[in-house]
Amino acid sequence: MSTKDKERIELLQGTLDLLILRTLLPGPAHGHAIAKTIEFNSADVLQVEQGSLYPALHRLIRRGWISSEEGTSENNRRAKFYRLTAKGRRQLTVETSKWEKLAEAIARILRPAEQE
Amino acid sequence: MMADLDRDIQDHIEIETQDNIGRGMSPEEARYAAIRTFGNATKIKHQTYEVWSVAWVERLLQDVRFGVRTLWKNPGYAIAAILTLALGIGANTAMFSVVRGVLLAPLPFHQPERLVIIGESRPNLNLKELDVSYPDFQDWQRDAHSFEQMATLTWSSYDLTGSGTPQHIDGMQVSAGFFATLDVPMAVGRDFSRSEDQPQGAQNVIISNRLWKDRFRATPQVLGQYLKLDGADYTIIGVLPPGFRYLTEADVYTPLAVSNPKLCGDRTFRGIVSIARLKPGISIAQAQGELSTVQAQLDNLYPAADRNLGIYIDSLKHDFVGDTAGMLFMLLGAVIMVLLIACANVANLLFARAAAREREFAVRSALGASRMRVVRQLLTESVLLALTGGLIGLGIAKLALVVVLGGIRDSLPRGENVGLDWTVLLFAFGVSLAVGILFGLAPAMKSTSKTVFGSLKAGGRGSTRAHLRSQGIFVIVQMGLTLVLLTGCSLLLRTVRELRNVNPGFEAKNVVTFKVGLSPSMSRTEIDVQAAFQQLVDRIRQLPGVEAVDVAVGLSLPLSERDHSGSFWVGAQEPASMQDAPHALLFWTGPDYLRTMRIPLLRGRFFTPADTLKSERVIAIDDDLAHTYFPGKDPVGQTINVAWQNFGPARIIGVVGHVKNWGLNDPGTDNPSQIYISVYQLQNLVVPDLAKYLTIVVRTPLDTAAVIPAIKNVVYGAAEDQTVYRVRTMQEGVSATMSSQRLAMVLLAAFAGLGLLVASIGFYGVISYSVTQRVQEIGVRVALGAKPRDVLRLVLGQGLRLAIAGLIIGAVAVFLLGRSLPSFSQLLYGIKATDPLTLLTASGLLLGVAIVACYVPARRALKIDPIVALRYD
User: Fold this and answer.
1) Which structural domain range is residue A110 located in?
2) Of A49, A50, A68, which has the smallest distance from its Cβ to B12's Cβ?
3) How far is B64 from chain A (nearest CA, A)?
4) Which candidate, B811, B821, B809, places its Cα nearest to that of B842?
5) B425 touches chain A (CB under 8 A)
6) Which residue among A7, B157, B460, B630 is least packed, with the fewest CB closer than 10 Å?
């Protein structure tokens, strides 16, 4: 395994859901594209085991935050596309603000430690 | 969605493959890389599947199917576990059904929580009595506002003659509002009306449903027909619904005022019980307060009868069953201990099994099963075992209720209510579920811990140490609980033995008692009754084998009789109120009574046939009365004024020994004074029928079965339609006073025996298992020169250590419980709950059992051949 892999951080279940929602904000995408986008946009820090995407996608479908449809990929291959629903769009805002608050709080705790 | 998943995954991998080819890999490499990057497709599919989660039901079914298969393949261990659990759950279910039937189930009347019983108390003497007087009751009815309905009642019995076989039946005399208070509708006909319930009212009767079916074949034309009770005709005006009962299964109910006219006019005679239904929203405390105010006015209006009388009100249910609550809950606690012992056994079994299945768990983990999943699987298995055990346990409970409790049911109030109803079934199910989960948890968690999984390489032995430790803990707990049960049981055994040795003041052996129903055609005036009984007694005295015989009233043994007490005073000064005067227990007897009961005569003489209505009134007193009121003097010749029933002044002719009237554990504090009055000097009694009160007491060395036929001949010889009933030996009566202790003793003995059996099997199992696990170790020791004695010490040492640790814990528990459990200490007599000798004996027994249980495994350990052992893996 390359050193690059060691820096990759394991992704928590709920966080993955949030990232997927965000990734779909610009528009619908298929599973493979979503995985690649997350990797790319995080500068390869976030490792997404591609398969673990699918339980997450189904969770989001079950909650009604995304919907699915058949489509064709860039290479003219068959693929299932996922798209954000109105409900999902609202949820994205909620979850994002929750995440930002969490990150802020953790950062605040970690900062004094750095000063010592 | 799910149907597409396979395809979606394939599509995804396809796209990644293409990407990889674009990066320069060969098609084969590209595909492999894509598959690897994707991850474990099977696991992914399962996880996705679980998202759509009716999956938990599927999983449960899967677990159940797998569990059943596993258990089927190992029937030995499954059967052992199931049987152990069945015993524990069965015993608990049986005990719970008793608690439910007697204590928890509400009374079978409409809104039973509003039903109360009203008694008169004497607060200055700290006495609570249930009996009230009729005139007081009438005044309450008029003046009190807290009650919707009030009623009074008393018990009686009648000779039923006429068409059909003559019988002696139980009955009740009730006021007009009785059935209305209980809110019981008639099945046929109507209730008594207020106007009918007067001293000169019509002789109507309401009969039980059972009597209606037996004697009248349930004909709707029963109304207006007659019943001949004690020779008088009563018109049937109503039939009760089936299953109605108020404490007893009385067959006939007559109006109280009609049956007891003298009682209704006498404010000083307290011989009836009063019940009432509270108005909605009124509490017992409020009602008691209000009625006390009413009673205070009566105290002022009628000082001779009522001064210083108070009121106390109790819920009807508590009156029915209150005394037994403590004992029953204690027994429930004991049977729960048995269940814990059984569960500990099963847990240890599961530990042993789990050790053998380590490989299976490790492989499942490697295949992706989370720890929780495996634990869930194991829990499903243990719950399956428990539920099966519970089912069989229900059968055992039913058997127990029929066989064991059948004999004891009569000594429990509301015993007829005990049975397997749906709450009991629910309880059994709940307990099985709880047991399965609680006791499967420890083995399940312990056998799936991380250290276990790491042990796949080590030949699967790593967990044994941890398992043995856990098993050891369970065994120690078992030993402790068993000790508690054994000690409790021995204490009760000692108590019963002590009680049997108590001298009650008379000799109960070889005494038979019975009552006689006089011929209905006979006159019931006191004189005629006295003459009839005197004749009977004289004739019975002539029978061979009869040493002594006479009549008596006032015995509380047998306990079906109520005792009679009355006030008296010594000296010339009559006390201002009868409530302030001293009270004594009254016995109305014939002259031969003393000899029949072998009560010692301490001074003077007892009654003779010369003491009649025409001669001077005489009484005999007991030595307690003599010491209290005539200290240092000879009471014989002195006069005492007996206020009861206006008996008047009477000369003391003798002093007799005190008897324990309420049972062998009667401390005698309630009514230390006892007065004997000759039956043949009674007249103008307030009681309606003297004959009903008289019991004939016979001393004979012959067996009851041998002497009763002769006695019956005498009775029938006097008149054909007379009856002999309530035949009981004095011994039975005495035993009846110990019925709580005996019930507790029998049940506790059963529980202790069960616990001991299960615990010793478990103990044996654990030691045996331990030896099997340590075969290698022992082999090594022997090979290194250990003697058989050392091996023995190893095995026995382990066993003894466990046993002694358990005994210590048990002893501590006994001390704590002994101090803090009044419901148990109350049952004891002559011995303290923390009696050290009993504890030591029980410990010794348990230790002995433990050593015996070690015997077979120890022998096996001795036989271990080191060469074989070292090769054994």
Assistant:
1) 3-115
2) A50
3) 26
4) B811
5) no
6) A7
B482-529 residue pLDDT tens: 999 999 999 988 888 888 888 888 888 889 888 888 887 777 788 888
| Separation of alpha carbons B150 and B144, rounded Å | 10
- Verify whether the Cβ–Cβ distance B11 to A49 is below 8 Å: no
Picking from A50, A55, A73, the nearest residue to B38 by CB comes out as A50
| Confidence check: pLDDT of A6 > 50 | no
Tell whether A79 is within 8 A of chain B (Cβ): yes
| A63 contact B CB<8A | no
A3 Cα to chain B: minimum distance (Å):
17
CA separation for the pair B49, B53 (Å, rounded): 7
Indicate the SS3 state at residue B218. Answer: coil
Domain segments of chain B: what residues? 2-52, 125-307, 324-498+741-871, 522-718
Report the alpha-carbon distance of residue B67 to residue B383 in Å, rounded.
10
Contact B563, B661 (CB under 8 A): yes
Q: Exposed/middle/buried for B772, CB within 10 Å: 0-12, 13-18, 19+?
A: middle
pLDDT tens digits, one per residue of B217-238 = 888 888 988 888 887 899 999 9
Q: What is the pTM of this model?
A: 0.76
Q: What is the CA radius of gyration of chain B?
A: 37
- The answer to whether B519 touches B228, Cβ cutoff 8 Å, is no
Question: pLDDT digit string (tens) for B832-856?
Answer: 888 889 999 999 999 999 999 888 8
* Residue B379, C-beta contacts closer than 8 angstroms, at least 6 positions apart: B436, B437, B440, B441, B444
Q: What is the CATH number of the domain that holds A85?
A: 1.10.10.10
Q: Give CA–CA dist B551/B591, Å, rounded.
A: 9
Distance of CA B201 to the CA centre of its chain: 42
Q: Is B709 on the interface with A (CB under 8 A)?
A: no
How near does any CA of chain A get to the CA of B75, in Å? 40
Given a contact cutoff of 8 angstroms between Cβ atoms, the answer to whether B276 and B181 are in contact is yes
Tokens describing residue B457: 């390489």
Nearest to B658 by CA among B648, B649, B650, B669: B669
For chain A, give percent helix, strand, coil, nearest 5: 60, 15, 25
- Give dist(CA B355, CA B334) in Å, integer: 32
- The DSSP result for B21-70, as a single string, is HHTT--HHHHHHHHHHHH--HHHHHHHHHHHS-THHHHHHHHHHHHHHHH
Please give the structure tokens belonging to residue B322: 């209150």
> Ramachandran region of residue B111, left (φ > 0), alpha (ψ -120 to 50) or beta?
left
Mean pLDDT across chain B? 85
DSSP per-residue string spanning B763-820: HHHHHHHHHHHTHHHHHHHHHTT--HHHHHHHHHHHHHHHHHHHHHHHHHHHHHHHHH
Could you list the beta-strand ranges (E) of A48-108.
66-72, 78-84
Cα–Cα distance, B80 to A85 (Å, whole number): 58
| B42 interface with A at CB cutoff 8 Å | no
- Is a pLDDT exceeding 60 seen at residue B863? yes
Distances (CA, A) of B206 to A53, B156, B235, B665: 81, 14, 8, 40
Chain-chain contact of A52 with B50 (C-beta, under 8 angstroms)? no
> Is A50 in Cβ contact with B39 (below 8 Å)?
yes
Q: Please compute the mean of the pLDDT values over residues B291-305 and round it to a whole number.
A: 87
Give the Cα separation of B430 and B566 in Å (integer).
Answer: 54
Domain count within chain A: 1
Residues recorded for chain A:
116
Under 8 Å between Cβ of B630 and B619? no
Mutate to test the interface with B, among A13, A40, A50 (most CBs of B within 10 A): A50
| pLDDT at position B86 | 93
For chains A and B, CB pairs below 8 A equal 62
Q: If you measure CA to CA, which chain A residue comes closest to B41?
A: A51
Position A2 scores a pLDDT of 44
